[in-house]
């Protein structure tokens, strides 16, 4: 599934991915059109496989993912050797998985067995002349736009990615972060609620889930920063007030300041409220992401305090 940005009511709506024809099954009857003719315009990877083949279950999905991430610069055709024995015999397939790449109507490269993803990327790069993974490039551009505060522009790029690779967890997480940045947290929750378990388990998506949970918890403190700062200044040892201030700062997107308040609690009493400061820091780091400056700052200081 992927999501358009707006249905006129500010909510995400299911949409079919545009990259659905990047991978297809073929038969002896359609092989000429699907492979020989198609390879005249774009390289075609042919995967000989069978449902009972263990390595095929590893190779196939990874190869399909990379083909979809190529942004249309390479296609993939799958051939079930049990059902297409004539084709298997024609290509002298003796073990599976076996992969051939076709360019200009003829075989150009190939391999046998399940290769790691890094080698599969190199295989595709050779076919297209390098730089096959335009999806990764687009995601990097979207993240840069979002970090610069251009949430609508970032969302448009993420939507382009999801049109080619509808189950891309990084893009799904990115578009949810865009909704949150645009003040549409409910839209982000709606997207989150539609995701299957395997995508929900991805660290990027988990980070968004945590961010949404924190937003719900911290939102009630958003308008109390000045009052809470006064309470903390008057009574620095009031750790409850300091914890509420950290949440208020988080709700105001003052990330480093929020982290520093939790670090101060940890410094004063690391076991306070069943280590609540450390646990909240871990949630903040997950919500921010590992490369966020506030996460890097906070992890470094927390490590120093833990081993002091």
TrEMBL record:
- PANTHER family xref list: GEO12009P1
Look up the record and give one Gene Ontology term from the biological process aspect. Answer: cell redox homeostasis
UniProt domain Thioredoxin: residue ranges: 7-129
The record's annotation in PROSITE patterns points to: THIOREDOXIN_1 (PS00194), THIOREDOXIN_2 (PS51352)
> What SUPFAM superfamilies does the annotation carry?
Thioredoxin-like (SSF52833), TPR-like (SSF48452)
State the residue spans of region: Disordered.
Answer: 1-23
Can you name the source organism? Caenispirillum bisanense
Instruction: Give a single Pfam family match.
Output: TPR_19
Q: Which UniProt keywords apply?
A: Disulfide bond, Electron transport, Redox-active center, Transport
Full protein name: Thioredoxin
Q: Which CDD domains does UniProt cross-reference here? A: ybbN
Q: Which domain of life is it from?
A: Bacteria
InterPro entries recorded: Thioredoxin, Thioredoxin-like_sf, Thioredoxin_CS, Thioredoxin_domain, TPR-like_helical_dom_sf
Which sequence ranges form a coiled-coil region, renumbered to this chain?
Answer: none
A GO term for molecular function: protein-disulfide reductase activity
């Amino acid at each position: 599934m992927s999501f358009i940005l707006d249905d006129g009511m500010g909510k995400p709506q299911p949409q079919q991915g545009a990259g659905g024809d990047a991978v297809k099954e073929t038969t002896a009857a359609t092989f000429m059109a699907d492979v020989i003719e198609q390879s005249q315009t774009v390289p075609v990877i042919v995967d000989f496989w069978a449902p009972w083949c263990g390595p095929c279950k590893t190779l196939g999905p990874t190869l399909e993912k990379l083909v979809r991430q190529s942004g249309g610069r390479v296609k993939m055709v799958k051939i079930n050797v049990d059902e297409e024995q004539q084709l298997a015999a024609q290509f002298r397939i003796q073990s599976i998985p076996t992969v051939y790449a076709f360019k200009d109507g003829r075989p150009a490269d190939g391999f046998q067995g399940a290769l790691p993803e890094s080698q599969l990327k190199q295989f595709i790069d050779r076919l297209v002349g390098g730089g096959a993974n335009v999806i990764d490039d687009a995601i990097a551009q979207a993240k840069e736009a979002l970090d610069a505060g251009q949430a609508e522009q970032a969302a448009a790029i993420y939507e382009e990615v999801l049109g080619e690779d509808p189950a891309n967890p990084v893009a799904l997480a990115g578009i949810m972060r865009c909704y949150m940045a645009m003040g549409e947290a409910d839209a982000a929750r709606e997207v989150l609620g539609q995701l299957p378990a395997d995508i929900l388990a991805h660290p990027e998506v988990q980070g968004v889930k945590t961010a949404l949970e924190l937003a719900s918890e911290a939102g009630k403190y958003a308008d109390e920063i000045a009052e809470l700062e006064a309470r903390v200044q008057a009574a620095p040892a009031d750790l409850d007030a300091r914890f509420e201030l950290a949440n208020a700062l988080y709700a105001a997107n003052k990330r480093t300041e929020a982290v520093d308040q939790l670090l101060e609690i940890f410094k004063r009493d690391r076991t306070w409220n069943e280590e609540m400061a450390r646990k909240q820091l871990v949630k903040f780091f997950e919500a921010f992401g590992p490369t966020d400056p506030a996460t890097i700052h906070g992890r470094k200081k927390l490590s120093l305090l833990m081993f002091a």
